[in-house]
Write a structure and sequence with these properties.
The chain is mainly beta and 663 residues long. It is 13% helix and 39% strand.
């Protein structure tokens, strides 16, 4: 063992060199709070220690101690430790962490112990912190893989930030990669050793990020509409029998829920009455002396409504007196008439039906934009400017997402992006692109040494500003991405160092634009009553803005719930009669009259029968009625709409001016 470390008292004395110290190392239990009265002790002889804390990681303590010659990871031993120092009148904690593993060189007089400031309940703390960060616009579960919804790291995907774990308190939070939440530490030239300043250029910054994101859902809606007619027709039976029946499927997402069709005149159940009329005139007689008389027998339906009558055939035989032979008396052959007619009743059909629509229409919306930024050049060739393309597909916004209700709300919506919830999803895409640009804009790193006292006051939640004439522009502001401090008991030297990352933008901010009213002067009506043009919405950091998309879906124009006016393409009744049948009567065939048409043979009988049949058929054909209804389909089609989003140029902070001269 080195003789310098043989005397523990000498070590402790050296640790006080320059007024620093003393330092204390105390083994502790898990989650044991710091207590100056308890932890001001030296449980191990520490000859040297270094604390290193890099952005987004756990701080580490590397300590060289006298070999305790015991199993440091034995079940009964404590594996957590507090490192503290006497800062004047106060005992200040510097580090709290857990032993990582078995020390190296366990056969040597000195062993190296490594501790990490990882909280014992880090997973739970991180998850709890992540829940508080699931806010608009930086988090939207529709863009997160369902299998990763419980992963707390997803809350950082659209943030230019990393996890931050305090090396002493173990508080878990996040910190932006450019703007430190806990303030700025200024370093003047006399605080920084001249030769310790190192400037390095990192990765080429991104110039633009193009996003093409697809939103998916199935538009669904259902409802009912009433249809019906009240029509006078001479062909009511076919209309009633062909009327749609409940349960029938009409196609295009339409079906029949209820239907009825009936004849108010009840033609099908009409009764028939037989009438006989006898007339006799006793005052006048035929030449033969017979009394003049008429006898009429008829069978007539009892109509409950209007009807038409037409003669299909008439036969006449003129009455004569046959004188007979010389020895015969005269014979009176009476005049006769035979008439065959057709009664055509007028049906008064009252029909109605309730049709149900079940809309099922897959829909897609594309959000497309390119977010660019103007940053300082670190290369001379324009083609070296880099761009990034991001393609995303959403979860189904018409289904439950992350255990919550469907993001689209009402499934019958025609569009998603122009809604307030849709703007949230759009804003997430913009800040996602923004995060990539900002992270890559931090391409200058400056490392320099500082005093131990300054270093222990640093954290990765702060910014550092270096004032140095050799730096372009005379100074550089950057986020602290790494800092170190330590003490070497062998020489009594206490040191510190810090590395800052600087963005190379031009600075500035965007302004929100309320837009121009489309109807009345601004203030005349309440906001939200009318549309506004040229609107620019600024995101929270005021470094980028966008124009909300105009609601103009590429579809058939149906808006759910449907109205009858929307749904009907054509509804028309063809061939309807009026209630009295007058509109039909003119189109009937004229009566067929056959004088003295006593059929003499079979051909004549067939001819008369054909005339009768043709006349009946023509009456029905000429006066047929049908109901013509054409509806717009609500299923079996899909729609796709693209929105090209206008976004402003991203304003990136100017943390170092590479275009300026150094002093």
């Amino acid at each position: 063992m080195n003789a310098d470390f043989a005397d523990q008292a000498t070590l402790r004395a050296r640790l006080r060199i320059g007024g620093i110290g003393p330092f204390y190392f105390a083994w502790a239990d898990k989650n044991e709070a710091f207590d100056p009265a308890v932890h001001a002790r030296i449980d191990e002889d520490v000859f040297k220690f270094d604390v290193d804390h890099a952005e987004g990681d756990f701080a580490t303590l590397t300590a060289i101690v006298r070999n305790p010659r015991i199993g440091l990871l034995a079940p009964t031993r404590r594996v957590w430790a507090w490192l503290s120092w006497q800062n004047g009148a106060d005992l200040a904690p510097l580090f709290y962490g857990r032993l990582v593993g078995v020390p190296t060189d366990i056969n040597q007089e000195l062993v190296t112990l490594v501790f990490t400031a990882r909280p014992a309940d880090f997973v739970a703390l991180k998850a709890a912190a992540a829940e508080t960060l699931k806010v608009r616009p930086y988090y939207d579960p529709i863009w997160i893989n369902p299998d990763a919804l419980d992963d707390p790291d997803t809350v950082l995907e659209a943030r230019s930030a990393l996890w931050s774990i305090d090396r002493v308190t173990h508080e878990v939070s996040i910190s932006d990669v450019l703007v430190g939440e806990d303030g700025i530490e200024d370093f003047q030239p006399d605080e920084v050793p001249y030769d310790s300043v190192k400037i390095n250029l990192g990765e080429t910054p991104l110039r633009s990020v193009s996003v093409d994101a697809t939103i998916n859902w199935t538009q669904q809606a259902s409802g009912t509409l009433q249809f019906g007619l009240n029509v006078a027709t001479y062909t009511g039976q076919s209309l009633i029998s062909d009327w749609p029946k409940p349960g029938a499927t009409l196609g295009g997402g339409w079906s029949v829920v209820a239907a009825s069709a009936r004849d108010l005149n009840d033609v099908e159940n009409v009764d028939t009455v037989n009438c006989t009329v006898n007339w006799q005139n006793v005052e006048k007689k035929h030449a033969t002396g017979d009394t003049m008389s008429v006898s009429i027998s008829s069978s007539v339906p009892i109509m409950r409504g209007p009807y038409l009558y037409t003669d299909l055939m008439r036969k006449f035989q003129t009455g004569v007196i046959d004188e007979g032979g010389p020895d015969s008396d005269p014979v009176n052959i009476p005049a006769t008439q035979e008439s065959t007619g057709l009664y055509v009743p007028l049906w008064q059909v009252q029909a109605s039906m309730t049709l149900k629509y079940d809309a099922n229409r897959p829909r897609k919306e594309h959000a497309r934009f390119t977010l660019s930024t103007d940053v300082q050049d670190i290369v001379t060739l324009a083609e070296d400017a880099e761009s990034l393309a991001i393609t995303l597909d959403s979860q189904d916004v018409g289904a439950e997402v992350a255990g919550g209700p469907p993001p689209i709300g009402y499934l019958g919506r025609r569009s998603y992006l122009p809604t307030d919830r849709g703007l949230w999803s759009l804003e997430y895409l913009i800040v996602l692109a923004r995060a990539h640009l900002l992270i890559r804009s931090r391409c200058v790193e400056i490392t320099f040494a500082c005093t131990f006292e300054r270093a222990i006051a640093l954290s990765c939640r702060k910014n550092g500003r270096l004032v140095d004439d050799r730096v372009p522009g005379g100074q550089a502001l950057g986020k602290i991405i790494d800092y170190k401090f330590g003490v070497d008991g062998g020489n009594g030297v206490a040191i510190g160092s810090v590395t800052i990352g600087c963005a190379i933008g031009y600075g500035g901010a965007v302004q929100e634009q309320p837009g121009d009213p489309s109807y009345a002067a601004d203030g005349y009506v309440a906001r939200g009553y009318q549309a506004y043009h040229n609107v620019e919405v600024a995101l929270p950091a005021s470094d980028v803005s966008y124009a909300p998309p105009i609601d103009a879906p590429n579809d058939d124009g149906l808006v759910f719930p449907l109205s009858k006016r929307q749904a009907v393409v054509r509804e028309q009744v063809h061939g309807s009669a009026d209630a009295q049948g007058g509109a039909i009567e003119a189109s009937f065939p004229i009566d067929i009259e056959v004088n003295n048409a006593q059929p003499q043979n079979v051909d004549e009988q067939n001819r008369i029968a054909a005339l009768q049949s043709r006349t009946t058929t023509e009456i029905l054909k000429t006066n047929s009625v049908w109901y013509d209804l054409e509806l717009k389909p609500v299923a079996g089609m899909s729609f796709e709409t693209a929105y090209d989003i206008a976004v402003s140029q991203l304003k990136v902070p100017k943390m170092i001016d590479l275009e300026a001269a150094s002093s």
